[in-house]
Automatic annotation (TrEMBL):
One Pfam family of this chain: HbpS-like
Protein name per Swiss-Prot or TrEMBL: Heme-degrading domain-containing protein
Organism: Paenibacillus protaetiae
InterPro entries in alphabetical order: PduO/GlcC-like, PduO/GlcC-like_sf, YBR137W-like
PANTHER family: PTHR28255, UPF0303 PROTEIN YBR137W
């Protein structure tokens, strides 16, 4: 397994919650938005949901209807495979192919691009997703993962 894939799996192991409530979704979403403003000065969309329904959605200035497509297709990958959308896309590349060529899933519903990260509660497993779109897949992934890290490490 490549170093990148190992790093992405380690993130999923490290970035877990003891519990995840609606208020956590709100505060995590705001953390990600502030991080995007500080580091990228570009509009992003953030969508956080548990496995039942949306808990937080925000579209910054500069986003458009295309961001809704990317939210849907990235989070569907996490829900299908149980790993971050970046991990899934990179795992296909490590096999010498691409998600698009080999996943056997419709592009209209699934994209193996970075930006969606599983919400994992210790002892319960994956209970939802955090999805960011508006930058490159790697930058979207960074915002989702770093946002979770900062939220978990808050004072």
């Amino acid at each position: 397994m490549s170093e990148l894939l190992n790093t992405l799996l380690e993130q999923e192991e490290d970035l877990q919650f003891d519990a995840f409530l609606n208020e956590d979704a709100l505060q995590l979403g705001l953390t990600i938005i502030e991080l995007a403003k500080a580091e990228f000065q570009k509009g992003i969309a953030v969508h956080i949901e548990n496995d039942q329904h949306p808990l937080f959605t925000h579209y910054m200035a500069g986003t458009n209807e295309g961001n809704s497509y990317w939210i849907k297709t990235k989070k569907n990958v996490v829900n299908h495979f149980g790993h971050s959308s970046l991990y899934v896309g990179e795992s296909y590349k490590a096999k010498g192919t691409t998600f698009k060529e080999s996943a056997g899933l419709p592009e209209s519903d699934y994209q193996g691009e970075g930006g969606s990260f599983p919400i994992i509660v210790r002892g319960a497993g994956k209970i939802g997703t955090v999805t960011v779109t508006g930058l490159t897949g790697e930058e979207d992934h960074y915002l989702a993962a770093e946002g979770i890290r900062r939220y978990l490490n808050r004072a």
